[in-house]
Amino acid sequence: MSPPEAIPIILLPGMDGTGELLKDLAKRLAVHRPVQLVSYPLDRSLSYAELAAYVLERAPSRPFVVLGESFSGPIAIEIAATDQRVAGMILASSFARHPLPSQLAAFVRAFDVRWLPKRLIAAALMGATATPELSTCLHQVLATLPRNILQDRAREVLRVDKRDRLREITCPILCLHGRFDHLTNERQIGEIVAAQPRCQVHWLEASHMLLATHPDAAANAIGDFCGPLDCT
To answer: Which structural domain, as residue segments, surrounds residue 87?
Structure first.
């Protein structure tokens, strides 16, 4: 059981929104602090603003750390810029401004990621660390997601720009990023650091889904970041 004085952490999942792929990380973090793993509704599409409100309605009444993975980075930024309870923010494989050209918006309306070969999806998201178990979990999660939800979330990504909100954040910030991440890259890290020069950047030898593929290393980095906040 985690110590009662340890600061809690809210985990916001990537594009799938289920949190299924973050359960191993959550178990490791829960040894040291309260963990709240959020899942987004699958029965309706919510904008970034609506998702931020959805998370805040479920947030602890005391100070907490918010972690946004990939798609959820802009949600974490909005929450950290809005709510004084946020004592620290972590962006994992994420961004403040959309990582893809806006011209792709029209393509997204017709695209379904599930059309891609399963092996290609796993390789793009997890690289060489895509174990059979993780790959199976990923494909099972994707199979349960309504196509319109994925498309609406992709459109949200393509028009988001939270750099101004990022500049307003006063709490400590950590960026976790994989050296072999081909979906978000050094440009996104550069934009985050430009907006928040005091942001810590921690690199892992990992691909995009580093929280799932490297839960021990990620948990250690998160613990080192949260530790000094436990007594504040």
So the answer is: 9-229
- CATH assignment of the domain containing 42: 3.40.50.1820
Q: What is the pTM for the complete model shown? A: 0.91
Does 154 reside within a domain? Answer: yes
**Ranges 16-30, 92-106, 108-122, 193-207: which has the least confidence:** 108-122
Q: How many domains does the chain have?
A: 1
Q: HEC string of the chain?
A: CCCCCCCCEEEECCCCCCCHHHHHHHHHHCCCCCEEECCCCCCCCCCHHHHHHHHHHCCCCCCEEEEEEHHHHHHHHHHHHHCCCEEEEEEECCCCECCCCHHHHHHHHHCCHHHCCHHHHHHHHHHHHCCHHHHHHHHHHHHHCCHHHHHHHHHHHHHCECHHHHHCCCCCEEEEEECCCCCCCHHHHHHHHHHCCCCEEEEECCCCCHHHHCHHHHHHHHHHHHHHHCCC
